[in-house]
Amino acid sequence: QVQLVESGGGLVQAGGSLRLSCAASGSGFSISAMGWYRQAPGKERLVATISSGGSTNYADAVKGRFTISRDNAKKTVYLQMNSLKPEDTAVYYCKADILMHGSIWSRNYWGQGTQVTVNS
């Protein structure tokens, strides 16, 4: 059984920072791409992704402010968010593309979501 457990959300003033973490629990699987997405009312948006080799991709709205990283040994992906703005307010979800050992196909797993609120 694979689970993604997120932590690190909260309330912060504009200009502040938060660091989100997402750890995959369980065993018997490999993780390829990991990423962060956010959902505000009426919107679902990709924030950032990182490949198993460390290649990253960012939404234009967060470039230069957010940094995605991963620790493969800990099966964890991070999102460092700096210079936060009120428009960054959303529920943030992590996603991992996971291949169970012995399976042919990988599938996406999602975390439970963590609320980030940025006050002006």
What does this structure look like?
The protein is mainly beta. 0% of the residues lie in helices and 61% in strands. It has no helices and eleven strands. Strands 2, 4, 5, 6, 9, 10 and 11 form a seven-stranded mixed β-sheet that branches. Strands 1-3-8-7 form a four-stranded antiparallel β-sheet, with no helix packed on it. A hairpin with a 5-residue loop joins strand 5 and strand 6. It is elongated and about 50 Å long. The chain starts with a strand and ends with a strand.
Radius of gyration in whole Å, from Cα? 14 Å
Give the overall pLDDT as a whole number.
95
Question: Sheet with the most strands?
Answer: 7 strands, mixed
- Uncertain stretches of 5 or more adjacent residues: none
Backbone shape: elongated
Our estimate of the beta-strand percent is over 45%
What is the N-to-C succession of helices and strands? EEEEEEEEEEE
Cα-to-Cα separation, first versus last residue: 41 Å
Secondary structure class reads mainly beta
Q: How many separate helices?
A: 0
Total strands: the figure is 11
Helix content: under 10%
Structural descriptors:
120 residues; mainly beta; 7-stranded mixed β-sheet; 4-stranded antiparallel β-sheet
Summary of the model, kept short:
The chain is mainly β and 120 residues long. It has no helices and 11 strands. The mean pLDDT is 95.
Which helices and strands appear, and what pairs or packs with what?
Layout: E1 3-7, E2 10-13, E3 18-25, E4 29-40, E5 43-50, E6 56-58, E7 66-71, E8 76-81, E9 90-100, E10 107-110, E11 114-119
Parallel strand pairs: 2-11
Antiparallel strand pairs: 1-3, 3-8, 4-5, 4-9, 5-6, 7-8, 9-10, 9-11
